[in-house]
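Hello support,

Our group uses your service weekly, and this is the first time we've seen a run hang past the timeout. The protein is Reticulon domain-containing protein. I'm not sure whether the cause is the sequence or the server load. Input pasted verbatim:
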Amino acid sequence: MAEHSEESKVDQVVEKIKEELRGDSSSSDSDHEKSESSSSAIKAKIYHLFGREQPVHKVFGGGKAADVFLWRDKKATAMVLGGATAIWVLFELMEYHLLTLVCHGLILTLAILFLYSNASTFINKSPPRIPEVSISEDMAVKIARSLRYEINTALAVLREIALGRDLKKFLGVSHFGFIWLICSLP
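Update from on-call engineer: The timeout came from a worker crash unrelated to the input. Re-ran successfully.
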């Protein structure tokens, strides 16, 4: 009989701990309310894939990016997919390079601005207002000095490595150079 009462006390303590972990404030809830809360928790688990606590749209941020990713905004998603496909075709199939694309884009922009500014007198519009950009002499001198300092520091490190004063760095660089040489051979 004493063992039975100890087991029931242990069960009661375990139940109290479970209730506190669940956040139940009162321990005198009826069985009906407990079954309703457990059934709503089960329903929540059923309607969310893999037992998530939030819907997928909210997991992806809940904004425009989530709409595009989940195909809720079909036009925006089609534009993103078309743009990504065009970039893939340019770089992968046509073997176009990023630097070439940037340069061609800048040349095209310059040509359009030139034509627009010359044609603006014929179509009675004001020419585009392009701000004047200039770098002061002080700024250029500061940039040159900082660049000179960084280059001198790099050359000093390379000199120390070449003289072999720092054995660990020397072996690391020589090992890297050896691997680079092996990989560059045909």
